[in-house]
Amino acid sequence: MPPPGDHNVSGQRPALPSTAAGRQLGQMVRERLAADQGWNTFTSDQRRWVCPYCLAAVARRPQRSWEDSIGAHLELCRHYGGGRFSPQPAAAVQSQLSFENMVCRAETDAAWQVFDSGGVWICPSCLDRVPDARLVANQRNTLTYRGMALHLQRCAAYGSGNIHPPQVVRAAKDRSGTGNTRATTAVGLPARTPMGGAPAQRAPVATPVGMPVPQVPEALNKGVIDGTVIPWEVVPAIKVHELVKFHSVTDPKTTAFYTAVFIFAMNKAKYNALPPDLKKVIDANSGADASAWAGKVFGEADAPGRKMAENRK
Question: 196: alpha, beta or left, given left = phi > 0 and alpha = psi -120 to 50?
């Protein structure tokens, strides 16, 4: 998650005027949102739209449609220039969208809103203090969120992925046909792996193959895939350490290969239908403390899997 530019929420601009030009712009926005994937840049909670031209986060205006809200932004967007200019590179847009998704999480998840007495953020994954992410005048701002993003790039407890191939891989050339394997490497991406295998698609010599976790051992054994991308905690359960000889990890100082977020939720209507005593039990075992506990458990679960891999003869 590379740190983007300013976290600029654009939602306070004048509403789209009820003119022929305004209606035409609204129609254009409607058509682009329906047909152009480059414009489908809404955050996961649908609260913001990342402008592919200036990378600003556009909020939906009260009692206005998304088309009107986006149109009002584009009217004043200098990078759009009335449609004369090109959008930002897709990688830059996705980077900003990833950042905005993190901001949405930080704004709505209580576990991400824990700061010590000095205003320093406590990472909900590793529980470390993050001095680069602190409150400014007792408020969260762009600097706070940017510090969070920088920390999460290298946070080992945030769920960075590991590659488990049967042959040693130290560089892309080891999988390019000049080494000891075929030119295109099929890498198994279990269904529980987040992001739909997008990280492997960025690798020039890997072909992502999605499959449920229980199918990974058989696929490795039969040579259907040449490796798999799973966290250490999964290794013992499906005996990957007995099927491959090498395990590649990302440097904690660099961007993680992928990250995972698990959500344990309950239907709100079902919760509201519970008697007060049962609600009290759930309330006492959920929230920020429970989230931090779960993250600690997941982090500690990696150690046994890694030890098994390291001890394999």
Answer: left
Percent of the chain with pLDDT over 90: 19
Q: What are the structure tokens assigned to 85, written together?
A: 């200019």
Amino acid 282 reads: I
Read off the tokens for 95: 């980077």
Residue with tokens 């990302």: 250
* CA atoms within 13 Å, Cβ hemisphere of 14: 6
- Virtual torsion, Cα 142, 144, 146, 152, nearest 10 deg: -150
DSSP code of residue 285: T
Six token digits for residue 149: 């993003």
pLDDT tens-digit profile of 3-41? 444 555 554 444 444 455 566 787 889 898 888 888 989
pLDDT digits (tens, 9 = 90+) for 84-131: 889 999 888 888 888 898 898 888 888 888 898 889 999 887 788 899
Q: Are strands 206-211 and 48-50 parallel, antiparallel or unpaired?
A: unpaired
C-alpha 17/C-alpha 33 separation (Å) is 20
